[in-house]
């Protein structure tokens, strides 16, 4: 059930800075600790707190977290509303409706709730076939967990639900007998779920894997790579479990190299190719090595290279080094691209802007002295839409060189 204060306890009310009021009205979902000027009493994790404007009028309502620098995550901004079970049900259905028509029967792996951008702040819900993965980033959701599970049970009655937790809330979860990877609804046979994406089969480790088990956000970019791979030798650097590799193989690549430092990830890539025997005619090689070092060696010529590293800037202090690293990766990859070859470079670092990332890659092309055509740039997939600046992490650029 949704947590509400006892009748004798006054509703938690926060007064905030003028700048914070402006940001909330503009659609920003976060209220920082430093923006709270006063509150009528201490609050508890998950309590619904009201933000008042300078005239003491209702401005917003959200989930309060006394242990987080993000002191309140907005659920609703505007005229007053009653947050009850009917409101939560409608709120969920709104998010689900945004995905209607995005996918056909060839794809049963995608995002159903994208956190703040769907006004479910600090909560992500992904589907993998008949399994839902619910990931929480704030302890403010713990008091509401059963309510969320009840809503999911009503809409997905035959699905299992796995709970994933960010590291910063796992200690608080243990006190409630919750843990990362816990199956909180339904039944699962093992940690691995097989799902379909664009007609290809993939494994997702929904219990222990990165993110919620797979990088669903790169789906559209994988489709773009498939369309560009015909007749090309393809390198998938930072390959993880081979998502781009399988699409390139189906797109007609002559051969594919999956390059990653993790032997476990490369084993996953082999498993995914085995799930798709129709790709057996395309030579697939896995290479375990540090990508930065491997690219500096003579590895022959490729017709298409994908650079999709993990986040190189997890905090603002790492931004400058990350921008430099993106440029270095592009420079080294360009040396391996034959005439007419295509570089696909992606970034998932929220602290590096689109402008900064594209400038780093374009600068590397300019320094190479080669002619080039910029084919396209891309951002978030429609099921991963972003509605405020901090949510805009994913960007990719496609450049052909001569």
UniProtKB/TrEMBL annotation:
CDD domains: AdoMet_MTases, PUA_RlmI, RlmI_M_like
Molecular function terms, GO-annotated: methyltransferase activity; RNA binding
InterPro entries found in the cross-reference section: PUA-like_sf, PUA_sf, RlmI-like_PUA, SAM-dep_methyl-trfase, SAM-dependent_MTases_sf
Domain S-adenosylmethionine-dependent methyltransferase: residue ranges: 196-315
Keyword annotations of the record: Methyltransferase, S-adenosyl-L-methionine, Transferase
GO biological process: methylation
Ranges where the RlmI-like PUA domain occurs: 14-75
Origin: domain of life: Bacteria
NCBIfam families: Rlm_2499C5
Protein name: rRNA (Guanine-N2)-methyltransferase
Organism: Deinococcus aquiradiocola
Lineage, opening ranks: Bacteria, Thermotogati, Deinococcota, Deinococci, Deinococcales
């Amino acid at each position: 059930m949704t947590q509400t204060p006892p009748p004798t306890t006054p509703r938690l009310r926060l007064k905030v800075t003028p700048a914070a009021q402006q940001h909330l009205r503009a659609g920003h979902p976060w209220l920082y600790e430093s923006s709270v000027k006063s509150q009528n009493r201490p609050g508890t994790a998950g309590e619904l707190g009201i933000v008042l404007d300078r005239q003491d009028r209702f401005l917003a309502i959200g989930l309060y977290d006394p242990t987080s620098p993000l002191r309140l995550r907005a659920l609703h901004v505007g005229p007053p509303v009653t947050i009850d079970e009917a409101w939560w049900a409608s709120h969920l259905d709104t998010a689900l409706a945004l995905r209607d028509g995005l996918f056909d029967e060839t794809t049963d792996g995608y995002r159903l709730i994208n956190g703040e951008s769907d006004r479910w702040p600090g909560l992500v819900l992904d589907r993998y076939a008949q399994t839902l993965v619910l990931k929480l980033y704030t302890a403010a959701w713990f008091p509401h967990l059963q309510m969320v599970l009840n809503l999911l049970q009503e809409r997905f009655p035959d699905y299992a639900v796995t709970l994933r937790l960010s590291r910063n809330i796992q200690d608080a979860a243990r006190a409630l007998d919750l843990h990362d990877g816990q199956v909180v609804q339904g039944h699962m046979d093992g940690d691995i779920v097989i799902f379909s994406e664009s007609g290809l089969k993939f494994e997702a480790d929904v219990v222990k894997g990165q993110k919620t088990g797979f990088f669903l956000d790169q789906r559209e970019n994988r489709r773009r790579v498939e369309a560009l791979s015909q007749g090309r030798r393809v390198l998938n650097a930072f390959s993880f479990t081979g998502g781009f590799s399988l699409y390139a193989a189906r797109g007609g690549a002559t051969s594919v190299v999956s390059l990653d430092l993790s032997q476990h990830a490369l084993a996953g890539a082999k498993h995914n190719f085995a799930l798709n025997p129709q790709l057996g005619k395309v030579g697939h090689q896995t290479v375990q090595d540090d990508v930065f070092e491997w690219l500096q060696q003579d590895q022959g010529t490729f017709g298409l290279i994908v650079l999709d590293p993990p986040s190189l800037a997890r905090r603002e202090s790492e931004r400058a080094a990350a921008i430099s690293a993106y440029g270095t990766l592009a420079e080294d990859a360009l040396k391996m691209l034959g005439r007419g070859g295509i570089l696909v470079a992606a970034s998932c670092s929220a602290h590096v802007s689109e402008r900064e990332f594209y400038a780093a890659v374009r600068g590397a092309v300019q320094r190479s002295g080669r002619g080039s055509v910029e084919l396209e740039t891309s951002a978030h997939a429609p099921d991963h839409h972003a509605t405020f600046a901090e949510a805009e992490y994913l960007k990719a650029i496609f450049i052909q060189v001569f």
